Fold this sequence. Notes:
Elements (H helix, E strand, L loop, with lengths): L17 H6 L1 H14 L6 H10 L6 H12 L6 H24 L3 E2 L2 E2 L1 H5 L1 H22 L2 H24 L7 H26 L4 H28 L2 H4 L5 H4 L5 H9 L2 H12 L5 H13 L2 H20 L6 H15 L3
Antiparallel strand pairs: 1-2
Helix pairs in contact: 2-5, 3-7, 4-5, 4-9, 5-7, 5-8, 5-9, 8-9, 9-10, 10-16, 13-15, 13-16, 16-17
Amino acid sequence: MGVVIPLEDKNPTTASVKPLIHLTASDMDKVNQLILSKAGSDVEMIPEVANHLISSGGKRLRPMLTLAAAKMFGYQGDGHIKLATGVEFMHTATLLHDDVVDESDLRRSKPTARMIWGNQASVLVGDFLLGQAFKMMVDVGSLDALDVLSNAAAVIAEGEVLQLSVAKNMATTEDDYLAVIRAKTAALFSAAAEVGPIIAGTGKAERDALRSYGTNLGLAFQLVDDVLDYGGKAQDLGKNVGDDFREGKITLPVVLAYRRGSDDDRAFWRSAIEDGESDDDALERAHSLIARSNALNDTIARAEHYGAMARDALAPMAESPTKAAMLEVIDFCISRVN
């Protein structure tokens, strides 16, 4: 078995997502009710597959960001409930699709839907959830919000295809990889945050600020996930540690370790990632090379950089408990490596 690399404690914070959970609790109750309602269908398999993932214990950070962003600007109404539910359905659909593409066996410490119902059902139920998401967006009646979320859906799909194009390719650069996660992960964080000020009727400056906040939070979040795959625990990651390596995924720690390694090291990475020679012994060597190259701490440093940009994006906003909670989420996302 591969060893877990002890990470340098660069962010010894007690940051928590609890303030955000508390501030959005009553609205999240409404979101959860709407999720259960809109995931229903006369086709029995649809709610079975959808509820398997929906009820599996995710923090629902993205819809909470939508609710908090609307609250930050004093929104009065129920449109944010539908938009937040749509955001969560978009996220759930991408997880269903990702698990098929990646041939993943575990999601949030449970068997993936594809392992229980098969690939075809997972893809089609994901499509159903996307359809429901867009119906709710239309119900809200905001063309701007619909534009932002529909654009995010297209960008996420582009990111999936881009990831396929760089998969198992050790020539992938850091810029290539950042383009993938900017599309696959950051786009939905960005849209989830931006639609809050949109429905609150704010100006361009507020929309731009929340879009920047969401984008940079999403980048930081994904980079920390990359670190956890080589230096974390399954309960923190929601899947088996080392899955990215076994699946031949190019992540930033791998890119950095490859670039910084010797000719022999690079030959190992090519055989492991490109040729699929990724057994437990190979994983142990990968851990060793990543530790020697300082790739994990440097990936954390990059996550902290994007976290700082997310904080700066919110700096002009008026002080409030909502702003404080959204700032604490940044520290929480990064502190998951401690």
